[in-house]
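Box S1 | Example of a co-folding query
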Amino acid sequence: MVIELAGTMTALQDAPVSGAMLPVLDEDARALLFTDARTANSFAPDPVSDETLAAVWELAKWPPTAANTQPLRVTFVRSAEGKARLLPLLNEGNRAKTEAAPVVALLAADVDFHEFTEQTFPVRPEMKANFDAAGVEGRESMARFNATLQSAYFLLAARAHGLATGPMAGFDADAVTAEFFPGGRYRTLLVVNLGLPGENPWFDRLPRLAHDDVVSWA
Ligand SMILES: Cc1cc2nc3c(=O)[nH]c(=O)nc-3n(C[C@H](O)[C@H](O)[C@H](O)COP(=O)(O)O)c2cc1C
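Box S1 (continued) | Returned holo structure for flavin mononucleotide
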């Protein structure tokens, strides 16, 4: 699905050349990720394999975060026990679809992401001590902002692997955090149903803002 321009991949990976053409996704790939992809509101019982879920992360880990901090943490809920802990913490209107989804991802921000910065940003080893000194209060907004970016990457990566996604903010975030992440290091951001679409899975498509409503030039 990728239009590969002559020599491009080599130039990208090995020997950056000023002005080298970058590859462009074809129309089918854009449709899969963006224009045809929908938010699923029902799910078929077909299971999602561990391999597929691992492959989703192998894609989602690549797009950028500030100083490569990568604060997103992912917890998959698939067992009946896990679902039973989660369902009461969701808004009532969100429960049936989460119950039906073969797997549910809890996306959370790690406010102690700096524990990894020596590994993820080795050219600035002093960053760890600086973030440590900032305290949780100083790190939380950065953790949330970058983990939210990564949540969007995660949704697109799941689509790229053929999964329908159902992101939901309609839940008691503090309660989910307390139930699944006691200790307070991880702060829940988003619950994402994953699987294949079930019966009547899509709501009517809602309009998107027009270019001129959004884009300006300075
Ligand atoms: C951050 C976020 C929170 C959402 N929360 C809910 C929710 O709690 N319940 C729900 O049914 N849909 C929820 N949605 C789904 C959106 O309403 C849906 O993705 C949007 O209307 C676009 O639908 P489409 O992808 O089918 O065009 C949420 C989506 C996002 C990205």
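The CA atoms of residues 122 and 155 lie 28 Å apart. The pocket of flavin mononucleotide is lined by residues 38-39, 94, 167-170, 190, 202, 205-206 (CB under 6 Å).
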